[in-house]
Write a structure and sequence with these properties.
heterodimer; A: alpha/beta; UDP-N-acetylmuramoyl-L-alanine:D-glutamate ligase; Protein-Tyrosine Phosphatase, Chain A; 15 helices; B: 265 residues; Rossmann fold; four-stranded mixed beta sheet; 14 strands
């Protein structure tokens, strides 16, 4: 074994042990330390996962799709190594591998362990080069963090680079309904498994901002037979005739409840999950597609999907002083518009807290809030509260959307939660729409109040 | 009260030039007019749509991705004379980011290819190539309409020709070209700028300036806009300024030449 690798592993593991002792739950620091000492560590360790190395990427749905895939693998009796604590950069992937490595650089996982790596869009080329994935799933491509990437097209370029660095026989699982994702399958040397929704009952409604205006092949216009949301639907290029590929895994009869959803998949029958929203149906389809490319049995796919509970901050419900708070991560226009859609389907008057941060992980540019159709539920909102570092900007966005004046505009999560608990009565339910770092802050304060557990324990 | 005033807004290429939340500018115009009893009609004018400036009192255009901007350049060429003619006649308008670039004289891509602009602003934009840093970050500028705050995100560098007036001077951030401290451009009643944020909601004085110029041109100089309670708008503005003070380096505009040379190194 390379002496540098041993040193890196030792340093990384020492860092991990120290972190656990301090019980701060830091998830990426061991990887940071180890990678500094041995940049090739992820390659050395990752390629020992001979049963399979899966990369899951996309603007939205990475975490949920990875959790679903993991549950399906576990239901099939296959051990999983997963960077599940939310750090999806190389250092988080390395941290997950380090947890199983000995000092000689040998990975001690159970036989047949599959590596499951949810990967930040810009990290995907590095991860593909290092891990040589057996399969890659891509959920969707929306505008997100343009202050990091500059433009949406930049992200598609990252993925092309990742595919070029992957083994030619790797399986691709692609969302057929997203033209910028589906077209990545054109000309791919290995198997391509497309997934998509086929249910006209969910087409129509507010479309929101669109991120795939034109055909990459010929710059022609897209026309849609069924258009579900933004640029997702049954598309066809008017110029060259390129069209949505026929899905290998297809959801029909989609029924969305407040806390769960059912849909029918060819060959699987009706499946049920404890998550809702059309976006989670796409996530489930991507997970099913990955499971099918690995040949998992239908029973395991159904059981895995059934077993998944909402991920940290994604439709998670927390109760404090008898007030139920549903945390709905809303970190970019596509995600927030999906949440707005979900809320519009609820019958009773809505109590909503919206939290806007502008740190690196959130995107420093808050302009995106103007691409969200908050107007769509303005007359449904009975009470609202506004929080986060940029609470003042969000208060203005909601004022111009026609929402009622907020009960409080507070940057401090603790003060905001106090204000919410002053207004809301025990037994009432409210919805919290935070950006990523705002979710961490808000949730941490709920932990302090005994409402839920720290996230590295869930 | 006399007849109800109507403001007819042309929103150019709303389906394409919409990448950084510039839709908020239309929302702000609508909101601030409604609050004063002014009716607003917003018409989206897309690729292939007919465009007659006489049908409108105000023109808005936002920013798009580089690839998409090339796509509308051809259509814009067909509308350029009408838009430029209207601006010459005092038509008020706001062009943000990619819209600002397309309303200049020309856009020169890093491979040397030239996209002609509508020529409202006497400016030229050059793209320094894919390896050059984009100008991304919080920005604050000083203008004759007060302090204006927002967020910039552009690859192209825009240079004013001699005699072309800037919209403002950069206090924090980069502005037109990260060299000379200028930001945006003004031609008669037409404003060009790189500021997203969205711009008009959190800079209500600029929003009102555009509305007032459009209404006065249509209904006469006696038109006044009653003041609104802008406490929420001011708080959002201050929040954007505070973000810029936290994160964007101060720009020393008095030493423009010197600072520019430093930055180029």
């Amino acid at each position: 074994m390379h002496p540098r690798a041993s040193l890196a592993i030792a340093a990384g593991r020492l860092g991990a042990a120290t972190l656990h002792r301090l019980s701060r739950g830091g998830t990426a620091l061991p990887g940071v330390v180890a990678l500094r000492l041995d940049p090739r560590l992820a390659t050395r360790l990752g390629r020992q996962l001979r049963a399979g190395r899966l990369i899951i990427t996309g603007t939205n749905g990475k975490t949920t799709t990875a959790r679903m895939t993991s549950a399906m693998l576990e239901a099939a009796g296959s051990p999983v190594l997963h960077n599940r604590e939310g750090s999806n950069l190389m250092r988080g992937i390395t941290s997950a591998l380090l947890a199983y490595a000995d000092m000689r650089g040998t990975l001690h996982t159970e036989p047949g362990t599959v590596g499951l790596f949810e990967t930040d869009e810009a990290t995907t080329p590095l991860a593909a080069r290092a891990l040589q994935p057996t399969a890659i799933a891509i959920t969707n491509l929306f505008r997100d963090q343009l202050d990091r990437y500059g433009e949406v097209d930049t992200v598609a370029a990252f993925w092309r680079e990742a595919l070029a660095a992957s083994p030619p026989g790797a399986s691709l699982v692609l969302n057929a309904d997203d033209p910028s994702v589906a077209e990545l399958g054109t000309g791919w040397s290995g198997p391509v498994h497309y997934v998509g929704i086929d249910d006209p009952a969910h087409a129509g409604g507010p479309v929101g901002a669109t991120d795939a205006r034109w055909c990459h092949a010929c710059n022609g216009d897209f026309r849609y037979e069924q258009r579900f949301f933004a640029h997702l639907g049954h598309w066809r290029c008017q110029g060259c005739g390129l069209a949505r590929p026929e899905p290998d895994t297809r959801a029909t009869d989609v029924h969305l409840g407040l806390d769960d959803a059912t849909f029918t998949v060819d060959g699987l029958g009706e499946v049920h999950m404890h998550l809702t929203g059309l976006y989670n149906v796409w996530n489930a389809l991507c997970a099913i597609g990955l499971a099918r490319t690995m040949g998992l049995p239908n029973d395991a796919i159904r059981a895995g999907l059934e077993a998944v509970r909402p991920a940290f901050g994604r439709q998670e419900r927390v109760e404090v002083d008898g007030v139920g708070m549903r945390l709905l991560l809303a970190k970019n226009p596509a995600g927030a518009n999906q949440v707005v859609r979900l809320l519009s389907a609820i019958e009773q008057p809505l109590q909503v807290a919206v939290l806007l941060n502008d740190r690196f992980a959130d995107g420093q540019d808050v302009s995106w809030t103007w691409d969200v159709d908050y107007e769509f539920i303005a007359d449904r909102v009975s009470r609202c509260w506004v929080g986060g570092d940029r609470a003042a900007d969000m208060a203005l966005r909601l004022k111009y959307a026609g929402w009622p004046a907020p009960r409080a505009v507070e940057r401090s999560p603790a003060v905001l939660i106090d204000a919410i608990l002053r207004d809301a009565q025990p037994g009432e339910e409210l919805f919290v729409l935070p950006t990523y770092s705002a979710l961490l802050d808000f949730r941490q304060d709920l932990v302090r109040r005994g409402g839920t557990e720290a996230f590295w324990q869930t | 009260m006399g007849e109800t005033m109507i403001l007819r807004v042309a929103h150019l290429y709303p389906e394409v030039m919409n990448i950084y939340g510039d839709r908020g500018n239309t929302i702000a115009i609508r909101h601030r007019c409604k609050a004063r009893g002014v009716e607003v009609e917003v018409t989206g004018v897309g690729v292939g749509d007919p465009f007659d400036p006489d049908d409108f009192d105000l023109i808005l255009i936002g920013g798009g991705q580089d690839r998409e901007q090339q796509r509308i350049a051809e259509d814009l060429a067909a509308k350029a004379d009408a838009i430029k003619g209207a601006a010459d006649q005092g038509m008020p308008g706001l062009a943000v980011c990619g819209g600002f670039q397309l309303f200049g004289q020309r856009y020169i891509d890093h491979d040397g290819s030239v996209i002609p602009g509508a020529g409202i602003f006497d400016v030229e934009t050059r793209h320094p190539g894919p390896r050059a840093d984009r100008c991304i970050g919080d920005i604050v500028i000083i203008t004759e309409f007060g302090e204006i705050a927002g967020f910039e995100n552009h690859g192209g560098r825009t240079y004013l020709e001699p005699g072309q007036e800037a919209l403002g001077t950069v206090v924090r951030g980069r502005g037109n070209n990260a060299e000379d401290g200028s930001e945006g451009a003004i031609y008669q009643n037409f404003f060009g700028t790189y500021l997203h944020g969205s711009l008009l909601p959190k800079n209500p004085r600029l929003a009102d300036e555009l509305i007032l110029r459009a209404l006065r041109r249509k209904y006469g100089q006696a038109v006044e806009l009653p003041p609104l309670d802008d406490a929420v708008e001011s708080a959002a503005h201050d929040s954007a300024v505070a973000a810029a003070e936290r994160r964007s380096a101060p720009t020393v505009t008095r030493w423009n030449g010197f600072a520019g040379r430093l930055r180029r190194r």
